[in-house]
Amino acid sequence: MRSKILKLSLNALRLCLPLVGLAYVFWDVDSDALLVNLRLFEPFMVMMMVLATLLSLLPMILRLNFLSGNTLGFSKAAQATLVGQGVNNLLPAKLGEAAKVFYIRSASRIRKSHGLELVFWERFSDLNILLALAVYVLWYTGRQLFLYPLFGVVAATWAVLVVFRCVPALSLRLINLIRWQRVRQSLLLFHAAIVNRFRPRFFLVLALYGVFFWALAASVTGLAFHAVQIPLSPPQWLAVFVVSSLGMALPGAPGGLGVYEAAVVAPSLWFGVDKETAVALAIVLRAVQYIPVTLLGLIALHFSGMTVANFKQEDDAAPESS
Questions:
Q1: Does residue 8 lie within any of the structural domains?
Q2: b or e along 194-209 (b: 16 or more beta carbons within 10 Å of the residue's beta carbon)?
Q3: How far apart are CA 240 and CA 158, in angstroms?
Q4: How many domains does the chain have?
Q5: Residues 6 or more apart whose Cβ sits within 8 Å of residue 184
Q6: Is residue 201, in this structure, part of any structural domain at all?
Q7: pTM for the full model?
Q8: Residue 121 and which of 1, 77, 148, 210 are 20 to 30 A apart at CA?
Q9: 11 within domain boundaries
Q10: Pairs from 192-199 (Cβ < 8 Å, separation ≥ 24)
Q11: Within its chain, how far is the Cα of 73 from the centroid?
């Protein structure tokens, strides 16, 4: 009964957040002024933004191949990344991660448990960098950002990793005390791999790939403000980028529809950007980051031979023990 109530609550939240976000974005917007601002985006600048978006996929591909120990190779890592990004943009509940794991398992000799570990390190790296950027924005703007959940997740994960590495025997005993079989089995499968990876060089390389990705992703927002000739300083448009990225982390519609747009508009208003210009920025940023990646993801999904049913089953199934 509790699980049903929780599921209904999450579904209601996913429905309400996009509606509230879109209402906030388009409420009391002058449509004529919005069109004028949209025309400020010249084709050359839009193409530069698309190029930066596509280039930001490169460090993600290289990072995934690095995490696989070069087992995937560039081609398979690229297809796995595109499938994951495309599915996340089209389907709810971050099913792109399940799709990525399914593709990795199908296209290589990598087991499902190892695939899950690769995705874990990707997300953990991104969360650490996003938290660092968010703390900087909090300091720079003086705005109250609700970072406690993100900080709690990152800190708790680091604590678990340190326990796994420093006292493996104790951590194994603690894992075996967990009542939920699926959670216990997942942690047991991750334990050995995490202990082996816990080295300074591993974290340094992972951080470098992460910084490379986030720098390219942030540059798209900087190019958007340059296109409409708004003289925001790099720390200011970086703040807009970080808040929009935090918005994307919230549960909601596929691709963060509504939530992302609101998370672009709100911080833009902090720095004196008028509402119509901020909405135009959100629309263009959405288009240049969503359409090319989603199309490439659909192409990769087609050539992979996968179906939605495949990775939904992958998401629902318990981790294998072999």
A1: no
A2: beebeeeeeeeebeeb
A3: 27
A4: 1
A5: 175, 176, 178
A6: yes
A7: 0.88
A8: 148
A9: no
A10: 193/113, 193/114, 193/117, 194/117, 194/161, 194/164, 194/165, 195/164, 195/165, 195/168, 197/121, 198/161, 198/164, 198/165
A11: 22
> What are the pLDDT tens digits along the chain (322 aa)?
666 666 666 666 667 878 888 899 999 899 999 999 999 999 999 999 999 999 999 999 999 999 999 999 999 999 999 999 988 888 765 678 888 988 898 888 788 778 888 999 999 999 999 999 999 988 888 877 777 888 899 999 999 888 888 888 888 888 888 777 777 777 777 777 777 788 889 999 999 999 999 999 999 999 999 998 888 889 999 999 999 998 887 766 677 888 899 999 999 999 999 999 999 999 999 999 999 999 999 999 888 877 766 666 655 554 454 4
Query: Is 10 within a domain?
Result: no
Torsion of CA 56, 57, 58, 62, to 10 degrees: 120
Q: Which amino acid is at 215?
A: A
> Residue 34: which domain range?
17-316
Q: Give me the numbers of helices (H) and strands (E) for the chain, helices first please.
A: 15, 0
Would you say 311 and 179 are in contact if contact means Cβ atoms under 8 Å apart?
no
> What DSSP assignment string belongs to 305-319?
T--HHHHHHHHHSPP
Q: Cα separation of 297 and 80, whole Å?
A: 9
Letter string b/e over residues 252-266, b meaning 16 or more CB atoms within 10 A of that residue's CB: bbbbbbbbbbbbbbb
Integer angstrom CA distances of residue 218 from 35, 125, 210, 224, 235: 25, 16, 12, 10, 11
Name residue, tokens 């069109």: 35
Length of the chain: 322
Q: Which residues of 141-161 are buried (b: 16+ CB within 10 A; e: fewer)?
A: beeebebeebeeebeeeeebb
Asked if residue 56 lies in contact with residue 241, where contact means CB atoms within 8 angstroms, the answer is no
At 292, is the secondary structure helix, strand, or coil? helix
Report the C-alpha gap between 161 and 212 in whole angstroms. Answer: 24
